[in-house]
Design brief:
mainly alpha; globular; 42% helix; 0% strand; single chain; 3 helices
């Protein structure tokens, strides 16, 4: 069980479990929001 969550966890769950297209944009695409977040620099971009 998670003891700490954040907006990215919520967005990921919405995208993966509810197929929410708005939440998907946080992670997918050249202008994905997570790519602009300076606290999340060690990530691998997904192209789908």
């Amino acid at each position: 069980m998670l003891t700490l969550t954040d907006g990215y966890m919520t967005a990921w769950m919405l995208w993966q479990l509810c197929d929410n297209e708005e939440a998907k944009t946080v992670f997918v695409g050249n202008d994905a929001e997570i790519l602009l977040n300076t606290k999340w620099q060690d990530i691998k971009k997904r192209d789908d």
